[in-house]
Design a protein that fits this description.
The chain folds into two domains: 33 residues; 115 residues, 3-Layer(aba) Sandwich (D-Maltodextrin-Binding Protein, domain 2), CATH 3.40.190. The protein is 41% helix and 21% strand. By secondary structure, the chain is of the alpha/beta class. Strands 3-2-4-1-5-6 form a six-stranded mixed β-sheet.
């Protein structure tokens, strides 16, 4: 009698598991998706939009990147760059849509979470740049000219980007 109850309990449990798990997964399975021929290797998983039009300025704090400043210069200049093992944070100005988009593009080019991006008030951004309390900053050339940044040329590398071509100034 105990054996019959145990077998009945196992059968009932198995039927409930099939109903709860099996039927919804069977309803969501589509044979055309599994045989379409595209996979993670043959299809792009990240859509990187084109660079926005205009001129942009990238500021790099040399004091924080003494060991790998050349690698970051190459990265922001759209040149071939080696694997960079250091993390970096980037600040952009609130209201500078093109600068935010450009910073987002650079963030997408790096492995996940290697570049943190923060959008800040333009006045706070200027203060951080002038005091040297930033890692990198990306903004449009118009905003940079309007803010009249007084960055220390010895401690900050400035890279001007125009249409995917960059002109480096140290």
């Amino acid at each position: 009698m105990k054996v019959i109850k145990a077998v009945g309990h196992c059968v009932l449990s198995l039927m409930l598991a099939v109903i709860i798990v099996g039927i919804p997964s069977a309803m969501s399975f589509d044979i055309t998706d599994s045989s379409s021929g595209t996979d993670a290797v043959s299809s792009a998983s990240l859509n990187i939009p084109a660079n926005p039009d205009g001129e942009f300025v990238v500021l790099i704090n040399n004091e924080l990147h003494k060991d790998n400043i050349e690698e970051w210069k190459s990265f922001f200049s759209d040149e071939d760059y080696p694997v960079i093992f250091n993390d970096i944070s980037c600040i952009t100005a609130r209201g500078d849509a093109a600068g935010i988009t450009t910073a987002g593009l650079y963030t997408q080019r790096l492995p996940e979470n290697q570049m943190k991006m923060r959008v800040e008030d333009p006045t706070l951004l200027v203060s951080k740049i002038e005091k040297g309390r930033f890692d990198t900053a990306i903004m449009s050339k118009e905003l940079s000219d309007a803010l009249k940044l007084k960055a220390d040329p010895e401690n900050i590398t400035v890279i001007n980007i125009t249409g995917g071509v960059s002109d480096e100034k140290a």
